[in-house]
């Protein structure tokens, strides 16, 4: 009887142990909300997702395999952009996402565009990534050379839920304009570019790293003007909203744009929820900054080269996730 009981206990213990091993080998999925497929968020999100992933059964990093988080399968998910990503993280339908620094800060504090909404107090930062350039693209045939010239024109401000729409409204206001002063449309940049090629759109806003795919494709087929956002009006924006900085688009970035253009930029940041496990975010942050990821970012996109550990905390206006904070302290980026 005792022997049978001992055997049963042993069998149960073995099953529990085996089950634990099986559970440990189960993949863990981690989504990164990005933006439209024609923008910069999406390809950068794909690069990062590939870098931090290490599916079950992959070869270890030291054997030439994945250098990501063991068992993690990360995916870049196309979305409407910053505001949509914040909402999705708050609602639990995304584990993480990209956001403009201004949108993330306002959402966390319940200020700015979030002042009439519940603050997203659990919003946390993983890293600042790169500066996002505010593009104001106009058809050369439209005669638009300044923001003032947008009055009465067909202008796309980007789709609802995007950070671009937020910034476009701020810029219009700085120049004494509003959505009522233009023929406003709310389209993704590739849709706006298509209408511009057809002669049905005079200008559109887009916030993203240059060169942006939709704009580069448009410029190769249609004469465009990259409208400067500078002078006293831009200085007013920078003074009122400290997330903005002066930004230069180099000459030749887009076909036909032969001179550098002064505009504004905001930081692109990778954000998550305080509810995500500390060990997971620590591993993800560590994987973001290893040598393998560095090679992928440098080779994968021009903006990838600007994603550096030295600038990982620049412009971060919300608390760091404890897992990310732990890594940055260990790396000496964040002091006591």
Would you kindly provide a written description of the structure presented here, covering whatever features stand out?
The protein has 336 residues and is of the alpha/beta class. It has 2 domains: 28-130 and 268-330, 3-Layer(aba) Sandwich (D-Maltodextrin-Binding Protein, domain 2), CATH 3.40.190.10; 132-267, 3-Layer(aba) Sandwich (D-Maltodextrin-Binding Protein, domain 2), CATH 3.40.190. 36% of the residues lie in helices and 20% in strands. The protein is built from 11 helices and 10 strands. The protein has helices at 2-24, 41-52, 82-91, 101-109, 163-174, 189-197, 213-219, 231-240, 278-288, 291-300, 322-330, and strands at 28-33, 72-77, 96-100, 123-139, 154-156, 183-185, 203-208, 224-226, 245-249, 261-273. Strands 1, 2, 3, 4, 5, 6, 7, 8, 9 and 10 form a 10-stranded mixed β-sheet that branches. Helix 9 (278-288) crosses helix 11. The radius of gyration is 23 Å and the shape is globular. The relative contact order is 0.17. This is TAXI family TRAP transporter solute-binding subunit. Keywords: Signal. Residues 1-24 form the signal peptide.
